[in-house]
Amino acid sequence: MTVIGTGYLGATHAICMAALGYEVMGVDTDSDKIVKLAGGEVPFFEPGLPELLAKALDSGRLRFSTSFEEAAAFGDVHFVCVGTPQLEGSHAADMQYVDAAFEELALHIDRRALLVGKSTVPVGTASRLAGRVRSIAPAGPLAEVAWCPEFLREGFAVEDTMRPERLVFGVESAWAEDMLRRSFDPVITPDMPVVVTDMATAELVKVAANSFLATKISYINAMAQVCEAAGADVQDLATAVGLDSRIGKRFLRPGLGFGGGCLPKDIRAFTHRAEELGVGHAVAFLREVDAINMSLRHRTVDLVQEIAGGSVAGLKIAALGIAFKPDSDDIRDAPALEVIDQLRQLGADVRVYDPVAMDNARAVRPELTYCDSALGAARDADVVILLTEWAAFREIEPAMMGRVVRQRRIIDGRHALDSARWRAADWRYKALGRPA
Ligand code: UDX
């Protein structure tokens, strides 16, 4: 098999598939990435992946290339894993990379092969591409398209690829289903459901799932604002509500909200696509989900101002965390960066620290003051603010950090800290929707 596109999704897929025993070729137009991967270096942070890459390369089953011609000659099944970022100046998905990957590949397909899309795309894309592939591939109708959405979470990418909760196959023929089953044979266990459906449904499953998760997060954050106004405690509320098995406790953690390369752009692209289909009203609530989420960044800055007594101008603020979530170096649409930007605009002197995302942050925000530890960032701080819930931050000893700061004031932007511990060490602790 080949894997076209070696970003977070594609590199993980290629490495895991080779580790599972398949002959795999990873393909990317970015030769830097290919050189790194072929040399055993994963170009991003993902726990467990570097070790697995080393094993896969040692096995001889994993190779890399920048040539679509080589890919077409090599593979029977081709997984397209390129990105669909938000289009500049629009809510739509930018389809240029997916379109180009299918076209370039199809031009060289001269025997029966399955081209499987894994990227998150607007519904209707798979069927459009299937027609295009048939018409330009030398193999004609023997070049088939299928859609197999990917649900992996950054930070758990290996686990999610090796042991997914479900697989979804969007196919147009029994042959395509058979090829997909064979491509995931070691992953498919007796208790792992495979949903076989048409391609449009498969495309929609992904955006529907991400929309639901985003809605759950914005829902609890809406409750946090009500709790804040009513003097109630959103953490107890989330616990009690989540104990209803119909609701479930996951994705009910309040705080700064969702960011990253998926949830924000996926709900926007979904809304855009639904409007194109004439059913924009059906998903109009997703605009509110997005608006609630974006407002939390500003609301968190308000909390910092409130705890600082009104203004942050001239104050030293320690910002702990930059990545959009822990166990990732991904800073795409990271809420932390926006909070840091806003605080700096208000005149604060912000010192930042993140265990792995600082290199990526330096590339886009060279002007920030980067520190080499959480305690370093907190030195002489007037307010400490937790922006990404890295395990190492949860383990900070409040008394120890208390000795280096100027003022013991902390905003828990991720509802991740044990408020009782911090208060016991004489800190003023505040999180949105929790009593002061
Ligand atoms: C998400 C989907 O979970 C995954 O299935 C899909 O394939 C890609 O998008 P990911 O972006 O890696 O994965 O992160 P996820 O763990 O879903 O978290 C998304 C964001 O929501 C993060 O910013 C996280 O901090 C936030 N979040 C999550 C909350 O604010 N509260 C929660 O309770 C859970």
What do you see in this structure?
The protein has 436 residues and is of the alpha/beta class. It has two domains: 2-197, Rossmann fold (3-Layer(aba) Sandwich); 198-436, Rossmann fold, CATH 3.40.50. The chain is 45% helix and 13% strand. The protein has 18 helices and 14 strands. The chain has a six-stranded parallel β-sheet, with helices on both faces. Helix 14 (358-364) links the parallel strand 10 (349-353) and strand 11 (369-370). The termini are far apart. The mean pLDDT is 98.
Overview in brief:
The protein is an alpha/beta fold.
Describe this protein with a few key phrases.
single chain; 436 residues; alpha/beta; Rossmann fold; 6-stranded parallel sheet; 14 strands; 13% strand; binds uridine-5'-diphosphate-xylopyranose
Name of the CATH homologous superfamily of the largest domain: NAD(P)-binding Rossmann-like Domain
Helical content, roughly? 40-55%
How many helix segments? 18
Strand count: 14
Looking at the overall shape, the CATH architecture of the largest domain is 3-Layer(aba) Sandwich
Strand arrangement, largest sheet? 3-2-1-4-5-6
Overall pLDDT: 98
Ligand roster: uridine-5'-diphosphate-xylopyranose
What is the class of the largest domain in the CATH system?
Alpha Beta
Q: Tell me the CATH topology of the largest domain.
A: Rossmann fold
Give the overall form.
Answer: globular
Instruction: Compute the number of structural domains.
Output: 2
Rounded to the nearest angstrom, the distance between the terminal CA atoms is 56 Å
Q: What structural class do you assign from the helix and strand content?
A: alpha/beta
Strand-residue proportion: 5-15%
| Largest sheet entry | 6 strands, parallel
Low-confidence stretches: none
What's the Cα radius of gyration? Answer: 23 Å
